[in-house]
């Protein structure tokens, strides 16, 4: 089965394991089978997805940038780990999320279109989860939709080598969020290239010149960085020597993309959703929902129990 290649979540799990164990054998098995959901959890997540879909329908948009929470990244102050492009198929169609996935059995990345309910079900914490949605103004939205739906273009930007902590300005590896960032570059930069490596390099140069800033993971202990080499989907050779010296990784994350889009595309709106077994919260604006899915005074609350 395919497991979501959530950027840096494997790295975060590794560091958490190493922090509590002296042996690298404690490192997480990232491609393990996902947790089995109870009937109540499955129903709650499906209802959560239905709330998101209903809110998307109200907006009248046909394309959005979606991100979801995954493995615990709280120690790095990161709520979201995996992002993709949400596309609606026609006026009355369904929503699907086009994204980069890591196919564990094949040991390589793939592009995958996933229905919105399955995207929501892909989180790792069934009783508390978050989804972020960015809604773009008409022109950049149309440009992104056209580029994302151009499968040749989308595949041209797909690297054959996946790394959860891929450096955003190297073509050696790629993670799921970096593929999305490079897709944005082609959509909004009017870029063209004949070869995949040239396409990725061109996209990265465009991002750099427009001020794209990756997320910084301060590892804080070089031994952890050495142990990270034991996991096949984490690499260090693409990272600058100065980052290694500072014991940090710079990685594309949903927060990196949100910050870039907010600055680069005026008029972008944000919705955020979260769920517990008891309720769903619908939040509007760039300030985040409170931890623990606690609703604010202007939030909409949908009771699940």
Major pleated sheet: 8 strands, antiparallel
Helix content class? 25-40%
Count of folded domains:
1
User: What structural category characterises the helix and strand content?
Assistant: alpha+beta
Report the end-to-end length measured between terminal Cα atoms: 32 Å
Radius of gyration: 19 Å
Annotation field: number of helices: 10
Compute the average pLDDT.
85
> β content, as a range?
15-25%
| Overall geometry | globular
Low-pLDDT stretches = 1-8, 15-29
Tell me which oligomeric state these chains represent: single chain
Element order, helices and strands?
HHEEEEHEHHHHEHHEHEEE
How many beta-strand runs?
10
Task: Describe the strand arrangement of the main beta sheet, using strand numbers.
Answer: 4-3-2-1-5-8-9-10
Description:
By secondary structure, the protein is of the alpha+beta class. The protein has one domain. 35% of the residues lie in helices and 20% in strands. The chain is globular. The two termini are 32 Å apart.
